[in-house]
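Customer escalation, tier 2.

The customer says the design service returned an amino acid string that "doesn't look like it belongs to this structure." They asked us to rerun it and document both sides in this ticket. The original structure tokens are below, unchanged.
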């Protein structure tokens, strides 16, 4: 009989040890995320849904023209008509919270990896692990550490959604023209000035692509996070599965699709030149 390496037991033991020896750090982290997410959600809920729709329509017209603005108007009207206005706002709040945390952590990591080969060698396999691990697995430790609710949902979403912005930021930094970097050094730029005035401006297209992909992955994970009580449109999707309700499943799924298309097209437009059609 071959020996089986008890990887699962080691990981479970490590999680339990961390749970009992965190000295309240996880509770403080959970409280901060709960407060921040709640503030974003309450702010969005305070805004009338018709005004939120006008914001999407206005940005859509500004970035992509009247055709996309018309699509945004039809989408928001349909979401409201199906009765998913509140759920959509909650989902949007979760996406914003998880995306902001992902960008706050991911962009500096991407810059570090883009400018340091040793950091790239360490960070890259970690990102591979984060992206390829089934999304449902992240919900287990998140729920153990933070209980049920929006906090474990946001934590799991951050882990799942952060890799694209790290990868694409690093790629953008590494693809900056060497002549530009050498010219900056020749003119006496400090490493910080070189980063802020040469590398980051040249890498903006990749950076915006990373932000776009992070938002899309956050949306997909937020729906899955309904399994631990994150709320939003995911609750209706989960309810439709448990009740085998095809109608509810189609309507809630359509709400997710419409929100995804609007967020995708709008954020994508910031990485390219505006092209009104």
């Amino acid at each position: 009989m071959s020996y089986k390496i008890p990887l699962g037991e080691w990981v479970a033991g490590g999680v339990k040890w961390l749970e009992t020896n965190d000295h309240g750090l996880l509770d403080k982290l959970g409280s901060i995320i709960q407060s921040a997410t709640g503030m974003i959600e309450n702010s969005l809920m305070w805004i009338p849904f018709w005004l939120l729709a006008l914001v999407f329509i206005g940005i859509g017209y500004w970035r992509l023209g009247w055709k996309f603005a018309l699509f945004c108007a039809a989408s928001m009207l349909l979401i409201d008509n199906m009765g998913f206005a509140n759920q959509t706002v909650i989902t949007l709040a979760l996406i914003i919270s998880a995306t902001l945390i992902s960008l706050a952590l991911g962009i500096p990591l991407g810059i570090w990896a883009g400018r340091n080969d040793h950091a790239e060698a360490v960070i890259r396999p970690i990102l591979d692990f984060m992206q390829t691990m089934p999304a449902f697995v992240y919900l287990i430790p998140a729920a153990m550490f933070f209980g049920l609710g929006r906090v474990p949902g946001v934590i799991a979403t951050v882990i799942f959604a952060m890799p694209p912005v790290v990868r694409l930021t690093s790629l953008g930094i590494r693809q900056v023209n060497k002549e530009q970097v050498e010219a900056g050094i020749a003119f006496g730029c400090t490493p910080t000035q070189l980063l802020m005035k040469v590398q980051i401006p040249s890498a903006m297209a990749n950076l915006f692509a990373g932000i776009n992909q992070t938002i899309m992955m956050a949306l997909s994970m937020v729906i899955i996070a309904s399994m631990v009580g994150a709320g939003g449109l995911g609750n209706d999707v989960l309810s439709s599965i448990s009740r085998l309700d095809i109608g509810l499943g189609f309507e809630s799924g359509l709400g997710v699709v419409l929100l995804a298309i609007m967020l995708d097209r709008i954020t994508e437009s910031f990485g390219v030149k505006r092209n009104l059609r």
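Tier 2 assessment: The sequence is consistent with the input. The chain has a mean pLDDT of 86. Residues 85-115 form the longest helix (31 residues). Sent an explanation to the customer and offered a walkthrough call.
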